[in-house]
Amino acid sequence: MVKTLAQTGTSAMAAAMRQINPDVVAAYPITPQTAIVEEFSSMVANGVVKAELVQVESEHSAMSACIGAGAAGSRVMTATSSAGLALMWEVLYVASGCRIPVIMPMVNRALSAPLNIHCDHSDSMGARDAGWIQIFSENAQQAYDNLLQAVRIGEHEKVRLPVMIMMDGFITSHAIERFDILDDEAASKFVGEYKAVNPLLDVEHPVTHGPFDLFDYNFEHKRAQAEAMKPAKDVALKVAQEFASLSGRQYGLFASHQLKDAEIAVVVLSSTGGTARGVVDKLRERGVKAGLLIPRLFRPFPAEEIADALKHVKAVAVMDRSDSFGAQGGPLFIETRHALYGLGKNIPVTDYIFGIGGRDTGPDQIEKVFADLQDIAASGKAKQTVNYLGVRE
Amino acid sequence: MASLKEIVQQKPRLASGHRLCPGCGASIAVNQILHAINYPVVVTSATGCLEVSTTPFPYTSWEVPFIHSAFENAAATISGVVAAYNSLKRQGKISQDIKFLAFGGDGGTYDIGFQALSGAVERGHDFLYVCYDNGAYMNTGIQRSGATPIGAATTTAPPGKESYGKVQRRKDITSIMAAHQIPYTAQASVSYWKDLMRKVEKAMEIEGPKFINVLSPCPRGWRSIDGQSIALAKEAVLSCFWPLYEVEDGNKWKVNVKPREEQKVPVAEWFKKQGRFKHLFKPGNEPVLEQIQTEIDDQWQRLLAKEASSPTE
Amino acid sequence: MANKKKGWKELEAGGVIKEAGNSKSYKTGDWRVQRPIFDAEKCSQCMLCVIYCPDASIAVKEGKVTGIDYEHCKGCGICATECPKDALEMKSEAEFRTKKKEKVG
Question: Residue ranges of chain A with pLDDT lower than 50?
Fold first, then answer.
C-alpha cells in the first residue's frame, strides 16, 4: 500500500525514523538537521514511537550516549550537521572502533569559519576517515529509502559499522518534494529486529567494551576494522535488491544517467546530481554524448565499479562540493581519479570545486563543465586540473 | 548495611591483576563501592588511571559489564546505557533490576567531563556518578586539574621563582553538583569505608542522578611514602581539607564527621607528609600556608552553617 | 604470557573482552619490592586489611583472613600500616627471592 507525501527532506527522514522505530535516540539540534529531531520528538510526545529520547547537551554527548546505548544492546539513532558532526569527531571514531551500528541522518552543511549554515560537503568529507559507511541521497525519496536501507547495511553481521546518510542542507532538507513511503508493516519487517552483540545489559555475561590497547594489539584491531568495510558493498547491493522488490525503486552503489555510450561524463554527489540530469538530457538533444555518474556510497568507495562504468569515457569532470586544502583536489576527485588510474588508460580527469557555503550551482554552470569536457576530449588534455566553479575572482 | 565479615565473603567485582599503582586510592574506592552495591551493575569509566589500568587488552579486571568510550563523556556514555535499559525495560525485553555507575577521575569530572556530567544530571538519569579525586591528571603524569589544591606542585603548575605551585583554588565540585538539586550528593574518603559504603548503599535506593566525590590518594602524584594512602585520606578529613558530608535534594546538608578540637590536624601537618607540598615549607612561603589554613577554616565554617540552616524535614 | 598473541582475524570485533576478570592471570606480585608477612596468632579478624587492600590480595577463606595472595600483592604496605594488631609486617622482598627468578608466591 503506497503512501505518497509532499513534504520536506527532513520530514522524509523523520518518516523513516518513525518506521525504523529505534530504541534510543540521543540528539542535539543544529541547523539544518533540527527539524528531523523536532518531528521525532513530537512523535515521542504522542506515543507514536517507542524510543527513549535523550535531549543531550551537545553533539559530543549525543554520539557518546549513542555508543552507550548501542553497546548496552539497543538500536540507536541520532542526527546532525556541520559543526555538530565536527564536535562529535572524536567519538565517531569510537563508535566505529567499537563496531556500534549507530544510524545517523547527516544533513550536509558547511563547516566554519566563517560561520555558514548552508550546504556544502565539508562536514561529511571531514569525517571520511572515521570508519563510518557514508551514503549520499540526491532527494527526499532517496533520503527516506537510504535511511531504511542503512539500518540493514550497518547492522549486518558481516559489517557492524555505523552509517551516516547524507542529504543536502536546505536544498533537500527544507524543500518540499513528493515521495512515496512504504506501509508501516512492510517497512518494519524490512528493517527487522535488532540483534545485539555482546550487550552490556546481559549482566550474566559481563563484557568489557572499549579497552586500552598498547602497541601490541592496536594495529590488529584496526586491521580488523578496515576489513569490516569490505563486505559493505555487497551487503548494500543485496539490501537494495530486497528493497527494490518492496518499493519498485532500484538502488546500487551509484546512479548513472546516459552513461553507457557517453564520451564525456560528470561525477557529482547528491542534489547537484539531480540538476545535472537535466543538463545531460538537454545536451543529448543537441547530440552531445554527455553522461553522468552519481555515487551513492562514498565509504566504502566503490572504486572498481566506478572505474568500470567510466572506462569508455574520453574525459571526466568531477564536481566537488568541498575542498581539501593543500590536497591535489577535492575528495571525490581524488578518489575518482585514483580509481581510474588502475585502468591504465590515462583518461583526463578534472576537478570543479563548487557550491561552497550554499553557493547556488545551476544548469548553466554545469553546462560549462560539459563544454570544458568537450574541449578536453578533443585535445586530450586539460588546461587546469583543479577549477573553482562559480566563485567571484 | 552488611558487616565487614559478610562483605569480605563477596567475590570482588574488580579482580586483582589490574595495573594501578601499589597503594592506589582509586582501586580502594572502587572495591569499597562495588562491595556496597547489592545489585547487578553496569559500569563506565572515563579515560584515566582507572580505565587504562583495568582494561589493558587483552585483560580486564571488571567482573561486571564495563564500557569506556572517551575522556570527557563518562556521564554521557552512561546516559545512553540507562536510556537503552529504560527503553528495553518498557518494551518488556528486560525485567531485571540493574544499577548504573559512572567513574571519572577529577580531570574527567571537574574539567573536561563537567559538561557531560552537568547535562546528564540535569536530564535526571538514574545513575550514580563517582569521582575518584586524587587532585591532578595523574594518568598522564601529574598535570594540574580544577581539583588540584592551591599550593600543590604539578608538572603544569610547578613551583618556581615566580610561583608557589597552583595559585588557584580548587573548584568546589561537590557544592556545584548539589546546586543541580539532584536527589543525593556526597563527599567521602576511602579511609572512612563505612561512611563511603553507607552513602553508596543509600544512593542505590534513590531514583535519579547521584554524585559522590571520593578522596583517593595517589602515592605517586602526592609523593607520599609507601603504605600511607589510608592514613593520608583520614588526615585529609581531620584537617577539614576534605569534609565528609551529604546533601539531599540540594538543600539538606549534613556533615558526617566533625573532628573534635584535639583531633583536628593543621593543614600544614597533612601537607608535610606529601612531597607535592614540600616547596611550601621553604622560607618565604609562610603567608601561603597561612592563607590556605584560613581558607580551609572558613570553608569548614560555611559548611557547618549550611548544615545549621538546612530544613530539618 | 606464554600464549602466542592473536592475529587480527581471531580477535573479537571492536576489541571487546569477553573473559570477565581475566586480569587475575596477570601476576602483579612480580612488582613487589616488599611483602607483608601475616601473623595469624595476632590477627583479630577485624577485616580492615581486606577493605583497604587495593588489589583484593588478602586471602579470605570461609570468612577468615588466612594470609596474602602473593601472586597479586604489590607490597603497597597499607595493610601493615592499618592493622590495629600489628599482625602484618612488611619485609624486603629480596629475602624471599633467590638469584634465579623464582615462581611468585
Answer: none
Domain final residue, candidates A247, A271, A302? A247
pLDDT at B2: 84
CATH of residue A289's domain is: 3.40.50.920
CA A225, CA A94: separation in Å to the nearest integer? 11
Identify the closest residue of chain A to B115 by CA–CA distance.
A57
CATH number at residue A174: 3.40.50.970
Q: Where are the domains of chain B?
A: 12-308
The two beta strands, A133-136 and A297-299, are: antiparallel
Nearest CB among B21, B27, B60 relative to C22 is that of B60
3-state secondary structure of A212: strand
Number of domains in chain A: 2
Residue from the list C6, C11, C16 with its beta carbon closest to the beta carbon of A198: C16
In a domain, C5, yes or no: no
- With cut-offs at 50, 70 and 90, classify the pLDDT of residue C102: low
Number of domains in chain C: 1
Q: Tens digits of per-residue pLDDT, C17-35? A: 999 999 999 999 999 999 9
Q: What does DSSP assign to residue C84?
A: T
Closest partner CB to A68 (pick from B41, B67, B115): B67
Chain A: partners with 3+ C-beta pairs within 8 Å? B, C
Residue A379: helix, strand or coil by DSSP? helix
Q: Do B16 and C75 touch (CB under 8 A)?
A: no
| Same domain membership, residue A292 and residue A231 | no
Task: Give the model's pLDDT for residue C10.
Answer: 96
**Partner B contacted by C52 (CB < 8 A):** yes
SS (H, E, C) A144-160: HHHHHHHHHHHHCCCCC
Nearest chain A Cα distance for residue C29, angstroms: 21
Half-sphere exposure of B14 (CA within 13 A, CB side): 29
Give me the residues of chain B with pLDDT under 50, please: none
Nearest chain A residue (CA) to C11: A221
- Indicate the class that CATH gives domain B12-308: alpha beta
Nearest CA in chain B to A75: B84
Which of A60, A90, A206 is the closest to B65 by Cβ? A206
Residues of B with Cβ-Cβ distance to A66 under 8 angstroms: 80
Number of A/C CB contacts below 8 angstroms equals 51
Cell numbers for A125: 568529507
Please check whether residue A35 is in contact with residue A11, taking contact to mean a CB–CB distance below 8 angstroms.
yes
**E strand or H helix that includes residue A267:** strand A264-268
Cβ-contact A232, A240 below 8 angstroms: no
Chain B touching partners, 3 or more CB pairs below 8 A: A, C
ipTM reported for the complex, 2 dp? 0.96
The per-residue pLDDT for range C39-76, each reduced to its tens digit, is 999 999 999 999 999 999 999 999 999 999 999 999 99
Owning domain of residue A107: 3-247
The predicted pLDDT at position C1 comes to 47
B189-203 pLDDT per residue, tens: 999 999 999 999 999
Nearest CA-CA distance, residue A222 and chain B, Å: 14
Domain with C50, as residue range(s), is 38-97
Rounded to 10 degrees, what is the CA torsion of A223, A225, A231, A236?
-150
Please give the pLDDT value at position B99.
98
Note the pLDDT of residue A29.
Answer: 97
- Report the percentage of chain B scoring pLDDT > 70: 100
